[in-house]
From TrEMBL:
Chain residue ranges for the region called Disordered: 1-26
Domain of life: Bacteria
Gly residues composition bias: residue spans: 1-12
Lineage: Bacteria, Bacillati, Actinomycetota, Actinomycetes, Kitasatosporales
Originating species: Streptomyces coerulescens
Listed name of the protein: Lipoprotein CseA
Length: 231
C-alpha cells in the first residue's frame, strides 16, 4: 500500500520500458485497489447518505477532469516560489474551489497531525517551479480517494488536474502524469470491478492530453496489458 511519505525529485520512475505506467507500480496498485475498493466505496456511500448526496463514485466508467483549472490563492501556502511541505499541501487542497466539499470534509488527520496524503513534486508542465501532485488517501487503508495536480502560475498554485472517483492514484513517471484507476461497469459489485485503467498524460499548451492508456480486463485471462497510444 502507498505510504504517507513525501516524494521529492519528481521522477516517479519505478520500472524500465518504453511506455510509462507499466510494471511493478501497476501490479502493486492493482492488488491494493482490488482488496480495498469495497471499503472505500462503502465509506463514501455512507457519507453521501448522511448528506443526501450520491457519493464520489457513480456507476459507469471512471473519468478524470482535465482543465486549465481555477486559481488557488497563494496565501494557501507559504510562498508560490517555495515547495510546500505536507501541511501546506493540505491547506492548498482545502483552499481549492475545484476540490469537492466531500473530499475537504474527509481530509482530516488520521493520528495527531498526520494527514492521509501523498505529495510528490516534479516537472510536468514546464512551469517556473516544480508541479505538485497530491493524492488524498483513506486513513484506514491508504487507498486513493482523489488526485490533484497543481501548477504555479502568476504567483498562485492553479489546479490543472483532478480525479475524485476512488480508487485512484496519480504519480509522476519520466515527465508523464500517470493515473491508475479501477473501472466499474453498471452492474459491477463494489468488490469486483470490471477492469483497471492506467492512463499516461502529457502537458500540451495549457492542459494535460492523454498519450497512452492500458486497460486490464479482470474478466479475461491475463487481460489486455499492451499500451495503446491515444494521440
Amino acid at each position: 500500500m502507498r505510504g504517507l511519505g513525501t516524494t521529492t525529485g519528481g521522477t516517479g520512475h519505478t520500472e524500465s520500458g518504453d511506455s510509462p505506467g507499466s510494471g511493478p507500480v501497476r501490479g502493486t496498485m492493482q492488488a491494493a485497489f482490488t482488496a480495498m475498493a469495497v471499503v472505500v466505496a462503502l465509506a463514501l456511500f455512507a457519507s453521501a447518505c448522511a448528506t443526501g448526496g450520491t457519493g464520489a463514485r457513480d456507476e459507469g466508467p471512471a473519468h478524470a477532469d482535465v482543465a486549465a483549472g481555477s486559481a488557488v490563492s497563494p496565501s494557501a501556502v507559504a510562498s508560490a516560489s517555495a515547495v510546500p511541505d505536507r501541511t501546506q499541501a493540505v491547506r492548498l487542497v482545502k483552499a481549492d474551489p475545484v476540490v469537492s466539499t466531500e473530499v475537504k470534509r474527509e481530509l482530516t488527520p488520521c493520528v495527531s497531525d498526520d494527514y492521509p496524503i501523498d505529495v510528490s513534486y516534479g516537472d510536468l508542465t514546464g512551469g517556473p517551479t516544480d508541479d505538485i501532485v497530491v493524492n488524498v488517501l483513506s486513513c484506514s487503508d491508504g487507498v486513493g480517494v482523489a488526485s490533484y495536480v497543481y501548477r504555479e502560475q502568476s504567483g498562485a498554485y492553479r489546479n490543472v488536474f483532478k480525479s475524485e472517483e476512488p480508487p485512484v492514484y496519480a504519480e509522476i513517471d519520466r515527465g508523464y502524469l500517470v493515473v491508475t484507476q479501477q473501472v466499474y461497469a453498471k452492474d459491477d459489485a463494489l468488490s469486483n470491478p470490471s477492469s483497471e485503467d492506467v492512463i499516461s498524460y502529457r502537458w500540451k499548451s495549457d492542459r494535460f492530453v492523454r498519450k497512452f492508456s492500458t486497460r486490464t480486463d479482470y474478466g479475461s485471462l491475463g487481460g489486455d496489458e499492451s499500451p495503446a497510444p491515444d494521440g
